[in-house]
Design goal:
It is globular, with a radius of gyration of 16 Å. A hairpin with a 2-residue loop joins strand 4 and strand 5 (159-168). Strands 2-1-5-4-3 form a five-stranded antiparallel beta sheet. Helix 2 (31-44) runs antiparallel to helix 3. It has six helices and five strands. The chain has helices spanning 18-25, 31-44, 51-66, 110-115, 135-143, 177-181, and strands at residues 70-76, 83-90, 121-124, 148-156, 159-168. It starts with 17 loop residues before the first helix and ends with a helix. The longest helix has 16 residues, at 51-66. By secondary structure, it is α+β, with helices and mostly antiparallel strands.
Length: 182
C-alpha cells in the first residue's frame, strides 16, 4: 500500500475492530460491515432509470458509514488523463465541493497522476503539511478546502478510469484499518 514508508499516512491502527470503527462513526457495531454489504448489493442492482440518483444514494450511504465529510467518484476520460466528471455526496457542514475537479488534467495533480492505478490505495493525510512529492497536489486540495483524502483508483478493461475518494474536513492523524479495507 502506498504511503506508509514515506510517512504520509501517519500510524495505521492495526488493532481497530468493527466496534472501534463504529465508535469513531457513531454507528452501532457491525453497521459498517452491513452498510458495505448493502452498498455492494445496491451497486450490483442499479436501476436503469435515474441512475445518477441511485449512485448518489449509494455514495451517501458510504459517506455515512465511514464518517467522512464527503465521498466522490472521479471519472476520467478514456485515456485516463482528465477528470471528466465527479459524482459526490457531502455532509451538510462540508466546506468543500469535489465537483470543481471536473475538467482537471491529471498532469496538474502529479502525485495522483503517477500513483493512481486499479485498486491502489492512496492517502494525503494533511494538505497543509504534505510529505515530499505531494506538494503540488496538496496545494490544489488545500485551495479546494480539502485537508485530507483517502482514495482508490479503478480501471475498466485495463484502462485507468477513475477513483473513489473519501474526503475529510480535517487532517487525518492516521487511516483506520476499517477504512482501508472498506
Amino acid at each position: 500500500m502506498e504511503g506508509f514508508a514515506d510517512g504520509g499516512w501517519g500510524a495505521m491502527e492495526h488493532h481497530l475492530t468493527i466496534a472501534d470503527l463504529a465508535g469513531h462513526t457513531g454507528r452501532p457495531a457491525g453497521s459498517v460491515d452491513l452498510a458495505a454489504t448493502k452498498l455492494a448489493v445496491d451497486l450490483q442492482n442499479l436501476p436503469a432509470a435515474d441512475l445518477a440518483a441511485a449512485l448518489r444514494a449509494c455514495l451517501e450511504a458510504l459517506r455515512e458509514a465511514t464518517g467522512c465529510d464527503g465521498v466522490a467518484v472521479l471519472r476520467f476520460d478514456r485515456p485516463g488523463a482528465v477528470v471528466e466528471s465527479v459524482l459526490t455526496a457531502t455532509a451538510a457542514h462540508a466546506v468543500f465541493n469535489p465537483e470543481v475537479l471536473t475538467g482537471t488534467a491529471l498532469a496538474d495533480l502529479p502525485w495522483l497522476d503517477r500513483r493512481c492505478a486499479h485498486l491502489r490505495l492512496l492517502g494525503l493525510a494533511d494538505s497543509a503539511a504534505p510529505v515530499p512529492g505531494q506538494e503540488v497536489d496538496a496545494a490544489r486540495l488545500a485551495a479546494l478546502r480539502i485537508p485530507a483524502v483517502l482514495l482508490v483508483g479503478f480501471a475498466i478493461r485495463g484502462t485507468r478510469a477513475g477513483a473513489l475518494a473519501l474526503c475529510y474536513g480535517r487532517p487525518q492523524r492516521s487511516w483506520s484499518a476499517g477504512h482501508q479495507l472498506l
